[in-house]
Amino acid sequence: MNEILEKKSLAQGITLIKIKNELIARKALPGQFVVIRLKEESERIPLTLQDYDPQRGIINIVFQIVGKSTKELDLLKEGDTIMDVVGPLGKPTEIEKFGTVVCIGGGVGTPEIYPVARGLRESGNYVVSIIGARSRDLLIMEEEMKAVSDELHVTTDDGSYGRKGFVTDALKELIDKGKKIDRVFAVGPVVMMRAVSETTRPYKIKTLVSLNPIMLDGTGMCGVCRVEVGGETKFACVDGPEFDGHLVNYDLLLKRLNTYLKQEKESMELFERSCKGGCHG
Ligand SMILES: Cc1cc2nc3c(=O)[nH]c(=O)nc-3n(C[C@H](O)[C@H](O)[C@H](O)COP(=O)(O)OP(=O)(O)OC[C@H]3O[C@@H](n4cnc5c(N)ncnc54)[C@H](O)[C@@H]3O)c2cc1C
Ligand code: FES
Q1: Which residues hold [2Fe-2S] cluster (predicted)?
Q2: Among 35, 37, 215, residue to substitute to test ligand 2 (most atoms within 8 Å of Cβ)
Q3: Phi/psi class of residue 250: alpha, beta or left (left: φ > 0; alpha: ψ in -120 to 50)?
Q4: Staple partner for 169: which of 45, 165, 189, 204, CB 3.0–4.6 Å?
Q5: Which ligand neighbours the alpha carbon of 219 most closely?
Q6: How confident is the model at residue 138 (pLDDT cuts 50, 70, 90)?
Q7: Distance in Å, CA 262 to ligand 2 centroid
Q8: What is the pLDDT of residues 201-245, one digit of tens each?
Q9: Does the Cβ of 33 fall within 6 Å of ligand 1?
Q10: How far does residue 45's CA lie from ligand 1's centre (Å)?
Q11: CA separation for the pair 60, 165 (Å, rounded)
């Protein structure tokens, strides 16, 4: 259980791992996530399911190395096991036939939007996907997204590939061209999800975003993942992680995400010091 069957680097600092877990693979649905703990004393980290194979009992995760825990995860090799993988958690994405939908993925949001786009296409929607990255070398999963979309638009901030600009520029262009859009789904950095929500707000296009507050238990018990949506407190792990993007209090979310920056930096420095000459992926 939880053996790493495959590990692949998708881009600088972004890794895909395939983990053996029959139970989760059998139950997983688009939009859901797992909470993993590498060993007894490790912290818990929530990661979205990029894909799942119920027949072979395998789940896929794509993660960005941002701090101590994701660095430690990246040090594991094929054949190693992860102590706990809990899930599938969170409410699955509401998938039905809406008409024309736009699926937007920014950075490591792209692997997260992939099963959503696939599910929406399988349900008969016309799927327009927009994926973006800072530059060409950080762009991931283009082929996979092409395979599950009727149209794919690619943006890079620096113009090194696709359309120069942000995913919101491509979205605005579609709206300005008069494309009728029934629903937008966006996953990526908080600032990106806020910008997407502001782009669609004047047009009243329903927009779903997947929130990423700090989480601990992932089961609605600890209260750490609370977010404000439509003036009400919600727990992202059990009420979400998907919410109506026009109702999210993004300022509060950003503030809460930055609460432990000092401790996270210290923890990474300690880890790197303890690793000197010893830890290799
Ligand atoms: C529902 C959900 C799904 C996610 N899916 C993915 C994914 O598919 N791929 C991916 O790369 N990342 C994903 N994340 C973010 C991922 O959990 C964090 O990047 C990770 O926990 C960072 O841990 P760290 O110790 O390496 O970094 P740290 O140095 O501890 O933190 C770096 C930043 O990561 C965030 N973070 C830290 N701890 C947590 C935590 N327990 N919960 C949430 N955010 C945290 C904070 O914003 C923090 O500033 C998801 C987060 C949530 C809530
Ligand atoms: S992570 Fe504990 S309540 Fe959501």
Answers
A1: 222, 225, 237
A2: 215
A3: alpha
A4: 165
A5: 2
A6: very high
A7: 22
A8: 999 999 999 999 999 999 999 999 999 999 999 999 999 999 999
A9: yes
A10: 6
A11: 30
